[in-house]
């Protein structure tokens, strides 16, 4: 009898461990990254994972994934090798140029957590740089980072390390991640200038246990209860 109980207990422990496996990849949210190819996008491609609009409006802009070899990426930007799994996504005007009006811009992407336990989801190793500065990063409207940047901010020169972020802010189904940036003109004035975002991070979460694991736990529990009678 003791051997039977030990066997059942071991089976229960094994199944429980399997149902609470380590966090798995949900989506790579790095800018300029192709989740299907699992590699950075070709330079000059539109990053369709992100929609970008002028803050306070519905006016959309085009985010182009660009390497530093592209002339629209200033030499002063963070080097590609510092964040090798991402690219800058630069905002371009109607002619394809990079002179963007001064102001705030909202980058947004959606994350589907179907098949995952939402309460376990988080962004792993979040890193960010921006021209000129990041104002806010939010998950479903709740900030994980927020600041009032200095007028002279130049956050495109180095990477800001935010670490693991957002645990407890995700919900079942569709989620929205927004990044608000501010663009300042040349000489920190009000004229147009380049504006871009570079972000590296991965959304991870624990998968929902497979039905077979849940059924096994239930059967083992009932069997153990009957043996005790």
The number of distinct helices, counting runs of at least 4 residues, comes to 2
> How many extended strands?
14
User: Proportion of β residues?
Assistant: 35-45%
| Structural class by sheet pairing and helices | alpha+beta
The ordered string of helix (H) and strand (E) elements is HEEEEEEEEEEEEEEH
Mean pLDDT: 87
End-to-end gap: 12 Å
User: What integer value in Å does the Rg equal?
Assistant: 23 Å
Biggest β-sheet strands, sense, barrel: 12 strands, antiparallel
Which spans have pLDDT < 50 for at least 5 consecutive residues? 4-20, 213-218
Shape: globular
User: Quaternary state, please?
Assistant: single chain
Helical content band: 10-25%
Can you describe this structure?
It is a single chain. By secondary structure, the protein is α+β, with helices and mostly antiparallel strands. Helices cover 16% and strands 37% of the residues. It has helices at residues 2-19, 211-228; strands at residues 24-28, 33-34, 39-40, 45-46, 51-54, 60-66, 88-92, 103-112, 122-131, 133-139, 142-146, 160-165, 174-183, 196-205. The strands form 2 sheets. Strands 1, 4, 5, 6, 7, 8, 9, 10, 11, 12, 13 and 14 form a 12-stranded antiparallel sheet that branches. α1 packs antiparallel against α2 (211-228). The protein starts with a helix and ends with a helix.
């Amino acid at each position: 009898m003791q051997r039977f109980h030990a066997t059942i207990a071991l089976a229960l422990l094994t199944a429980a461990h399997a149902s609470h496996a380590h966090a798995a990849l949900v989506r790579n949210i790095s800018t300029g990254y192709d989740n299907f190819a699992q590699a950075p996008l070709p330079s000059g491609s539109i990053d369709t994972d992100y929609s970008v609009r002028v803050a306070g409006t519905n006016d959309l802009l085009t985010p182009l994934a660009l390497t530093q070899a592209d002339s629209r990426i200033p030499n002063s930007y963070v080097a590609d090798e510092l964040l090798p799994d991402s690219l800058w996504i630069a905002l371009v005007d109607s002619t394809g140029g990079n002179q963007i009006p001064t102001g705030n811009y909202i980058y947004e992407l959606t994350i589907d957590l179907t098949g995952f336990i939402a309460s376990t989801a988080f962004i792993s190793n979040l890193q960010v740089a921006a021209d000129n500065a990041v104002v806010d990063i939010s998950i479903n409207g709740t900030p994980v980072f927020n600041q009032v940047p200095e007028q002279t901010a130049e956050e495109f020169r180095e990477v800001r390390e935010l670490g693991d972020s957002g645990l407890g802010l995700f919900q079942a189904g569709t989620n929205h991640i927004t990044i608000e940036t501010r663009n300042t003109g040349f000489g920190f004035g009000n004229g147009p200038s380049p504006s871009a975002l570079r972000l590296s991070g991965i959304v991870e979460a624990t998968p929902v246990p497979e039905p077979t694991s849940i059924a096994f736990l239930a059967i083992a529990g009932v069997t153990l209860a009957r043996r005790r009678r």
